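Is S-adenosylmethionine placement plausible here? Inputs below.
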Amino acid sequence: MPSELVVPSIHGEEGQRLIQRFSSVPGLLQPVEGYTLYCWAKDGPGKGVVVELGSARGYSTCWLAAGSQISQRGKVFACDSFHYGENACFVSDEAVGIPLFQDTVQRMGLSDWVEMRVGDSAEIGRSWQPSQSIRLLFIDADHSYTGTYSDFMAWFPHVEPGGVVGFHDIGTNPGCSQLYSCLLYFNPQIQEVMAASSLRLIRKPLEGEGVFLPPSIEEAVACYRRVLDDRPSDVEVLTRLGQIHLEQQQLDEAERRYRSALAVASAKDGLYDSLAEVLRRQGKVAEAIDCYNHMVNPTAQQSVNLAGLYVAQGKHDQAEACYRHVLTLTASSPVVWNRLGFVVGLQGRIDEALQCFQRAVVLQPAAFSKSLDETTIYLNHLRGMLQDKINRIDAILKM
Ligand SMILES: C[S@@+](CC[C@H](N)C(=O)[O-])C[C@H]1O[C@@H](n2cnc3c(N)ncnc32)[C@H](O)[C@@H]1O
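Reply from A.M.:
I modeled the complex. Tokens:
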């Protein structure tokens, strides 16, 4: 079931107008993710309602409700325990979180398009009226594997055939990301229809309810292992197991899985990157460097990682070469100019180092005003090194 919906560029007139409209609302979504939700709420398939799990201060709610509002398609049900206060802090009392949410929705002129449901999101799902089908479900509540599992299992039966389910923080939060991977791997009938930053959207098949999903990450590991009993060289499963073991700090097991995957994979760069991370955590810096040096086409980020390993080994000239290579790809990265300044300074080329730091600050002046940004730390380090030399000069002069 391919996606028949096209999300216009966020840089277009509509996207920019909506970003401006919601600019005062605190939230944890990228604008491009909000705009994608808006487009699916506005033009997506189905006749049912929109349900959101995890509304917090109402940022994603606004995007969804604005989509429903403009196409006059019915309300958004916002489910949350509303223990979410100012500055994303947990508040023990929903009497704090609810007014903050209501204030947002009212200020944005969306009160008629939003209905709150207060409580545990999975509980609300289990008591949802089966007659009220859902055309768009957005899951952004408890991000753990089991939390996302409970939400998905409680709500998916209420999503109408062909309806859409959105997951947030895929690729950035391990729990929900692993669940999402399992969902797609064990249910080939379910297809991803869109991805925008960390937002992923799937569509419920038109026929057949059944979904197989392991209820815990331990069960997921057991299921993947059973697949390997039949197909020991399944690169996808070996990679998934490597990733789960890495996230769980089971580093020897992660190393074993990644090495098995590397032995049979055709595209190896991503696997070398993951294995390097495992080896770095194990303290095997030389082996980790070896992984990066095996890569065919390392990305800028991978070259930065390699440079970090050279710094750990005290090989500042090699780190410098990596950072200079990265700057040929992305000359305007303040982070890389900073790090280059750091390794150049460590080699005693102070004027050059200062030029690099200056470059970083010009590229990102806002970060420099923070007391603990990288530039400040490195400059203080440099000052410490120079002070040390001055102290030694003074000591000699006093002799
Ligand atoms: C990451 S925030 C949601 C961010 C929001 N979508 C936005 O656009 O800013 C997660 C929210 O889920 C809520 N939450 C977490 N677990 C929950 C649960 N089991 N039941 C209900 N709400 C939950 C939290 O109170 C919090 O408000």
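Short version: The chain has a mean pLDDT of 93.
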